[in-house]
Amino acid sequence: MTTSDGIRAAIVAPYFATLGNEWLTILPNVTEPVIANDQAPIARSGLALRLNKHERFASKLVDEHHDLLVYLPPMYKTQPGRRFSVLYMQDGQNLFDPETSFIQGNYWRMGETADALIEDDVIEPLIIVGIYNTGDTRIDEYTPVEDKRLGGGQADGYGRMLVEELKPFIDAQYRTLQGAEYCGMGGSSLGGLVTLYLGLQYPTVFSRLAVMSPSVWWRNRAILRTVTELPQRPELRIWLDIGTKESTRAVPDARMLRDRLVGKGWKLGESLAYFEAENAAHNESAWAQRVSPMLQFLFPAKEYAETRLF
């Protein structure tokens, strides 16, 4: 086995175990890049050609402009008659480019990971849209309700922009599959919070949610009340995770959110995956290691979906 084969195997082949009534994904300790160092320049160059930048996307619904970085799967140009599912991600500057990430050099490696999983037929080929946050107003757009001390509470406007303006733009520019079953959304921290909130508001638009290290704590855990007050469970497939070294309240909060979702009808291992990442902190490097199982759960290849252990 070559070095690159070993790294690919570690990323593509997670292990699964049932602990009591909790489904946990047991991941290898992947700390290296998806592609071996000797192949990185070539692979990175090929990937860069499939990253399309749309600068300062303008909205009539919100004041801020948002840069977009769009990942296209390897066969996008060679299969011109094919359409693809789409995953919309918050904090887009942290996903694909080490130069634009919050901490320079620490990014999600989302393009490299998606390429490896697609090449090995573990996930379906998909388009990933990274929506840049707007810096100072990030906390406003990513929070559902206002906090008296911290402000925020403009997620509804951000959601309208996403659904009524940005998604139609992407659908017009790229060969996307139509329908909620082909559309997902994801994010981490406040991005995970707004992902869950908007997913619950728009289940006819998005059906797959990546809720990574969500800021459940916001406004006295208001998101828990949002889940509790749902009249019925919407048809959403949710990946929920947390790192055990994030904060003292992070894991208990995530478990409360998991339990509220289960109480509303989500089933662990079926419509809901819950993962606690041992010794994982609240940062881009930690989330990068969870991109692979998240994509496998939300966008499994058809053949793999029939035999997966999620």
Features of this protein?
310 residues; two-stranded antiparallel sheet
Q: How would you describe this structure to a colleague?
A:
This protein has 310 residues and is of the alpha/beta class. The protein is 34% helix and 19% strand. Strand 3 and strand 4 form a beta hairpin. Helix 3 crosses helix 10 and helix 7 runs parallel beside helix 8.
Number of strands: 10
- How do the strands line up in the largest sheet? 3-4-6-5-7-8-9-10
Distance between the termini: 27 Å
Count of runs of 4 or more consecutive helical residues: 11
Global shape: globular
Helix and strand run = HEEHEEEHEHHEHEHEHEHHH
**What class would the helix/strand composition place it in?**
alpha/beta
pLDDT averaged over residues: 87
Biggest sheet details: 8 strands, mixed
State the helical fraction: 25-40%
Low-confidence stretches: 1-43
Strand content: 15-25%
Rg (CA only): 18 Å
Compile the SSE list and pairings:
Layout: H1 3-12, E1 15-19, E2 22-26, H2 40-48, E3 51-57, E4 66-71, E5 85-89, H3 110-119, E6 126-131, H4 138-141, H5 155-173, E7 183-188, H6 190-201, E8 208-212, H7 218-228, E9 237-243, H8 250-263, E10 272-277, H9 284-288, H10 291-298, H11 302-305
Parallel strand pairs: 5-6, 5-7, 7-8, 8-9, 9-10
Antiparallel strand pairs: 1-2, 3-4, 4-6
Helix pairs in contact: 3-10, 7-8
